[in-house]
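Bug #77: duplicate submission created two jobs. Keeping one. Sequence:
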Amino acid sequence: MEEKKQLLNGLLGIIFFACSTFSLGAQDSYTLVKAQKGEGIYSLLARNNLAPAKYFDEFVDLNATSLGKNNTLIEGKNYKIPVVSEVGRYPIFGKEYELVERKDNQLAGAVFYLVSGHGGPDWGANVKIGSRTVCEDEYAYDITLRLARRLIEHGALVYMITRDNNDGIRNEEYLKPDRDETCYPNHKIPAKQTTRLRQRASAINQLYRKNRSRSYQRVIVIHLDSQSKSSNIDVYFYHHPNSIAGKQLSITLQQTLKKKYQIHQPSRGYTGTVGTRNLYMLKKTTPVTTFIELGNIRNYRDQVRFLKENNRQALANWLTEGLIQDYRSHRN
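Kept job's structure:
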């Protein structure tokens, strides 16, 4: 019964907890999706998070002149599907942000596994600012939550692998550290690093097999770095040395951030890099993975990137745009 409930929630955009959704009704707007090999109307609608029985007739009406005999789809042809506004309740985002409206279907069919670094008994990198302790895991988690919410708005299926049932998205400058994070679905996080990473990779790989009918599945791992206080660094990315798709994903995200800095801070410049490393989460996860370092937690300039709520949201927004671009490239 629980598995059936999770599947239903997943079709509406995300699997966090059992969550309720309700429809606000169809809008007079549509998006184009390309029919895949061997695909029929029911499977195309399901792939794009639309209930096939509910939207079959509307789909046929929209695409009457583009369908084959007996309403078959033509491989590689673009078809119109309605953009449906739906609102879901996701308690993991916290009371202020738990209601999420799906705004469009730009990421319909895409699956994301989001992993914020450390958590549970491990705070990760941390630094004292006055009397406060600023911890890597809290800021990585807040930015990851914001990213998850934005991905849902565009129709993606999202799994939070590192989870905290009572923090939610927070707007404070200084986020209070705790040790109650869990690993999907609700497992205690081990203290030993290798065991912890194995637990996360295993959760992702099991979900990957469950979602194997979806061709676009991506893992996004988010960390903060710790270097000397004088080292001011930009957001940078790692991928597995043998992953062509991982390299492309990382480059797309890097280039998106570069463009955003050129628009919003044209005199600043951007020096974020893309490189390769044999990190555990890059080696042991089955889906394509990118590993993101958001900056140096010990540098006061970089700290502004994490401490300011609007900067944390900007990072989530910009990464979302890069992921949309990567998904479009995959589909074309």
